[in-house]
Amino acid sequence: MAGRKIFLFVIALGICLLAGYIGAYYTTPEIPTWYESLQKPDLTPPSWVFGPVWTVLFICMGISLYWILETGLKSQDAKLGMILFIFQLVLNVAWSYLFFGLHSTFFSFLIIIMLWAVLLCAIVQIFRFSIPASVILVPYFCWISFAAYLNYEILLMNPIYFGISL
Questions:
Q1: 8 Å CB contact between 161 and 104
Q2: Is 0.90 topped by the overall pTM?
Q3: What is the C-alpha to C-alpha distance for residues 23 and 108, in angstroms, rounded to an integer?
Q4: Which domain holds residue 148?
Q5: Angle at CA of residue 84, ends 108 and 137, nearest 5°
Q6: Residue 140 near residue 119, CB atoms below 8 Å
Q7: Is 166 part of a structural domain of the chain?
Q8: pLDDT tens, 34-59?
Q9: Burial state string for 82-115 with b = 16 or more CB within 10 A and e = fewer than 16
């Protein structure tokens, strides 16, 4: 039984860290070049803050996913919670690709609004069958809310990147 739990934890954490790695693949090379050249709002944290924050948040997502999987996904609530969780993870990666990979502040803003809504739905849904798995996602929701604000302000301050720029 303990071996199964460890395996499940490693898989859950691995899935979320892989999503973070994929996002970082598009993000990291653009930080010192494209991102630094953007006009940004005054509340923008220094670039070095993002890596540690995202690492902690992806670990929290992995723990949440583990707790979701621990329920056995037998109930409809758990199945829907899992679907919403995976969907928000895909949107998270898509945001990194659009914002950093394609330099599209507009389309990435649309995606982050979708991410915000799906994540909120996921938190509410997961709360129905696992309060800890839901609550551990709240800091992530707060960060996404802040990131949406930053994305919006960057969009307004840098109209040249409204569409897609390679």
A1: yes
A2: yes
A3: 13
A4: 2-161
A5: 80
A6: yes
A7: no
A8: 999 999 999 999 999 999 999 999 99
A9: bebbbbbbebbbbbbbbbbbbbbbbbbbebbeeb
